[in-house]
Every structure is written in C-alpha cells, then in structure tokens.
Amino acid sequence: MEFRIRPLTVNHCARLLEFYTTLSPDVTALFQPFGPHVTEDTIRRHLAETDADKHISLGLRAEDGPIAGHGFILFTETDRPVFGIGLREGVHGRGLGRRLMQAVLDEGDARGLLMITLTVLRVNTKARSLYEKMGFVVKGQATFRDANDSWYMERSRADGEMAGWRRQVPNRSLAG
Ligand SMILES: CC(C)(COP(=O)(O)OP(=O)(O)OC[C@H]1O[C@@H](n2cnc3c(N)ncnc32)[C@H](O)[C@@H]1OP(=O)(O)O)[C@@H](O)C(=O)NCCC(=O)NCCS
Q1: pLDDT tens, residue by residue, 63-108
Q2: Which one of 2, 10, 24, 118 has the largest count of C-beta atoms within 10 Å of its C-beta?
Q3: Can you point out the beta strands (E) in 42-173?
Q4: Which atom of ligand 1 is nearest to the CA of 132?
Q5: Does a structural domain hold residue 168?
C-alpha cells in the first residue's frame, strides 16, 4: 500500500476527527495532543488555525483511505513551537513515522523555525529514539499524568547545524 503525506486543511475535519476517535488505547496512552475526549470543535479549530498559518499539520494516508497518521507543529508564530506525531497502530514500524516526521520538520525549516520543542513520556523509548535521530535533545523533564513522567526535548537549528543533521537530510516534497 502506498502512503502519501499531505497538508491538512479545514476540509479534512471529518477525516481527522475519525482518526482521533478510532485510535487504539495503546496509542492514546502515549499520544493525546487534543486531550482524552477529542471533539469536532477542537479539530475544526485546529484546522482553521492551520489554514491561517498558526500551525503546520500533515496527514499520512493511503490513496482514498482513512488518515493513518498525524504530524504537526503547533504555535509556529511563537518562540517555542510544539511538535507532535501519532500513527494508527496497524502501520507502526514500517518507516512511515520517520517519513511523516521528516516532512513536518522540512516544512518547519522552510518556514524558518529556529526552535521546535516536544514532550515524550519516559516509557515511550521508541518515540524518544526517533526524536533523537531527528535532532531533538533532552533538555529537562515534564509532567503529563504523573510528576516528571516525561522528557522535554528541543531541536534548535543552531545545534542541529553544528551536529551536521541538516546536511544529512535530503530535500523532500510534502508528497513524501
Ligand atoms: C512513535 C511513532 C510515531 C514511530 O513511528 P513508526 O512508523 O512506528 O516508526 P518508524 O518505523 O518510522 O521507525 C523510526 C524510528 O523509531 C524507532 N522505532 C520504531 N519501532 C521501534 C521499536 N519497535 N522499538 C524501538 N524503537 C523503534 C527507531 O528509532 C526507528 O528508527 P530506525 O528506523 O532507524 O530503526 C509511532 O510508533 C507511533 O505513532 N506510536 C504511538 C504514538 C506515539 O507514541 N506518539 C509519540 C508521542 S510523544
């Protein structure tokens, strides 16, 4: 099955809502960017703000299939934009998360973001490993459900350029 990565707009409201309301408990235990009960209002607001360039929001989909992954950077106009990514359980471990994350970061770089932040549960070693490969560095702790149950990570363009990660990344179109 061929997957494509596309920018999401307010026209994708129903599909993105369906993605969030059908995620498995194992995924939602790790990934709840819009809280535990996602509503149409929340998704519509996110996509309307994306259309107004406040966020970057990309969807991973097989042709005509449901959304299988959502990658985003929220609050791109601030000095601490927030990255997030989640894939439906059935498509994990095939390189699609890395591809979606790369597409989102490429778009962040194209917009000139100097700093991107994220938080990840300590138990989520899989995601942390991916984030480190993509240039994020642990800078502190954060709280999701329990005190200090998460890492706070940053990817700074200056740090990344010194480490050489930008030179290793080929240019890709949003179509992946
Ligand atoms: C985390 C997530 C986005 C990774 O996407 P994926 O498509 O499963 O991962 P990929 O196949 O692209 O692998 C990318 C990297 O993730 C890590 N990874 C993937 N599967 C792994 C596994 N089973 N064990 C350990 N690390 C693993 C590896 O570092 C891998 O790099 P490699 O290809 O060089 O080995 C995806 O699994 C997911 O959505 N998980 C549930 C939600 C979630 O945890 N979101 C993040 C919240 S902070």
Answers
A1: 889 999 999 999 999 999 999 999 999 999 999 999 999 999 999 9
A2: 118
A3: 56-62, 67-74, 82-87, 115-121, 137-142, 150-156
A4: 29
A5: no
